[in-house]
Amino acid sequence: QVQLVESGGGLVQAGGSLRLSCAPSGSIFRINAMGWYRQAPGKQRELVAVIYSGGSTNYADSVKGRFTISRDNAKNTVYLQMNSLKTEDTAVYYCNVKLFGIATYWGQGTQVTVSS
User: Fold this and answer.
1) Per-residue pLDDT, 16
2) By CB neighbour count within 10 A (0-12 exposed, 13-18 middle, 19+ buried), where does 102 fall?
3) Burial readout 10-41 (b: 16 or more C-beta within 10 A, e: otherwise)
C-alpha cells in the first residue's frame, strides 16, 4: 500500500515562511494532479493549491500571491512554499494525489501553526 509522506510543517511567526514536501513511499503511475488541502479546527477541509500533470496550477483565493505549489515529476514529489504566513493559515495540511481514473491518495497530515 503506497503512502504519501509529508514533511515541513511546524510553528512559525506571522510573516514567516515554511515549505511543505510530499512524496509517495512507493511507485505511483498515471498521476493527474497533486495538491494540498488544509483543515482548521471546526472547519471543513479546503483546497489550498493543486498542480496538474501539464503544469497548470490553481490556488485558493486566500493564498494567491503568498503560496507557490511545484512538483518534481521525476521524484513524484510536490512542494508548497508558503510565504507571508498569517495566523489564519494555521491548520493541518494534507497532501493529495489524484490518478487518472478514480484513485486518490491522502497523506497523514502535517500541522502548520502560525503565531501572532
Assistant:
1) 98
2) exposed
3) eebeeeeebebbbbbeeebeebebbbbbbeee
Backbone angles phi, psi at 18, to 5 degrees: -145, 155
Helix, strand or coil for residue 4? Answer: strand
Which ranges in 8-113 belong to alpha helices (H)? none
DSSP 28: -
Residue 43, C-beta contacts closer than 8 angstroms, at least 6 positions apart: 91
Task: Check: CB of residue 9 under 8 Å from CB of residue 18.
Answer: yes
pLDDT at 102: 81
DSSP code, position 66: T
- pLDDT for position 101: 84
- SS3 state at 88: helix
Count the alpha carbons within 13 Å of 109 in the hemisphere toward its beta carbon.
Answer: 11
Tens of pLDDT along 31-89? 999 999 999 999 999 999 999 999 999 999 999 999 999 999 888 899 999 999 999 99
